[in-house]
Amino acid sequence: MSAPQPPSMEERLEDLARRLAHVQAGGGPERTARQHEAGKLTARERLERLFDPGTFTEIDAFVQHRATDFGMAGRDVPADAVVTGFGRVHGRTVYAFAQDFTVMGGTLGEMHAAKICKVMDLALAAGAPFVGINDSGGARIQEGVAALDGFARIFRRNTLASGVIPQISAIMGPCAGGAVYSPGLTDFIFMVDRTSHMFITGPEVIKAVTGEEITFEALGGAAVHSRTSGVAHFFAPDEAACLEQIRTLLGYLPSNNMEDPPRLDPPAGVPERDPALDAVVPVDPNKPYEVRDVIHRVVDPGSFLEVHQGFATNAVVGFARLEGQVIGVVANQPRILAGCLDIDASDKIARFVRFCDAFNIPLLTLVDTPGYLPGRAQEHGGIIRHGAKVLYAYAEATVPKISIILRKAYGGAYIAMCCRGLGADFALAWPTAEVAVMGPEGAANIIFRREIAGADDPAEARRRKVEEYRSKFASPYVAASLGYIDRVIRPADTRLEVARLLAALAGKREERPPKKHGNLPV
Description:
By secondary structure, the chain is an alpha/beta fold. It folds into three domains: 17-250, 2-enoyl-CoA Hydratase, Chain A, domain 1, CATH 3.90.226.10; 275-433 and 475-504, Alpha-Beta Complex (2-enoyl-CoA Hydratase, Chain A, domain 1); 439-474, no CATH class. 38% of the residues lie in helices and 17% in strands. It contains 20 helices and 17 strands. The protein has helices at residues 9-24, 29-37, 43-50, 110-126, 145-161, 181-185, 203-210, 216-220, 222-227, 239-250, 291-298, 343-358, 376-380, 383-396, 411-416, 440-447, 449-454, 458-474, 476-481, 494-504, and strands spanning 57-59, 82-89, 92-99, 130-134, 167-171, 174-176, 188-192, 197-199, 234-236, 305-307, 315-322, 325-332, 363-369, 401-410, 426-429, 434-436, 487-488. α4 (110-126) runs parallel beside α5 (145-161) and α16 packs across α18. The longest helix is centred in the first third of the chain and has 17 residues, at 110-126. The N and C termini lie far apart (78 Å).
């Protein structure tokens, strides 16, 4: 009797195709249809949209769980509910995972976590950005502590990769409990309107513990985290828009901390000078204006990508290009709270500055702030420690730093917004700039209190003293005469001036005292 013949190559290839088709079907047609009905794409559909066409390569497609308790023995869980691999975005390598909600609700178990950890290790070794697409019911209860350990291993890798490669999280479904801390450790979080939810404890637990009734959307929806908590950096109306936003952001970022951001050719036809800038900022220091009008006229047309647009709107931060070079822009927003710094704005600015510094992105700071927001709520909320984050971030940063005082720069906020003494390489000012310990009105009331009170016409005396203080101390020329401002420039020349200064700082190197790490105020 002859020995059985091994399968032919054709049979082996048919088996491979059959196995791949089974894995790629995820939870099957019915669950895929349910995913689509909920306004959500499947894991593989998301990865197809994220990467340049035809470039995604999946790894660990045949990984399976090893659990045997609670009905898990022999249970088929295709790809263990997560798709991992790499591809290209704008021609550059990016690694990613996408949790598959159609398979066991995308829950995370031991091997699910191992797949994510492997692709994170590969991204770190290759010096490539990492994108995580989260859509999961959380820890796989049937696997107990093994699932919790999986989260811990992911968190550790998030921390080790921080400041080395860009890490981006997209929330495209539920993300609850301990699972929220991996996105919380990454650089940027994207959320989708109505289908994304993040929270530590869900509505049912909150009701049981506190008696409060609240919906998923009101507790941890995209709108809440984009505008109120500041957890989300970007808000998208749907998943297709979200994935396109991620692709856009990646176009501004270097692959790792040893590279410079991608540089484009300077745009054609953009004039060096813009006379319209001369009229953007009102001479009256009490009149508001839109600081984005300044930003858009200084940077390359259409290049400003705002971060945290709906959160802490008294500050504006984002990426832009100037003559094709990527820069980070930080600005006070006089339309909101007169541009005061508060707790949320301080956190927003500090985190953005630290990201730019970690990834070699020069900083342009546009200053118009009367100070830190006063009040019991701010003091009791910790404005001291939160405000200190801005000081720490700017003082710590070694990338090129250019600051321009557009109008008000008073007190501690003048310092915090990257003044010369805090480490600005170049400090410029427009003729409308006022640099002082406090506003002229308040200063005059303190310094000249007796003279004003004893005058025949206190109102007129006060007006004269305000102007006296303004001309002596609030003028940019006083600060310039002492070397605290390097140049007073015409607003129309701002783009030209900043481009020249960035070119002059292209080779900047700055040594710092050796240390393990600093202790950031929290």
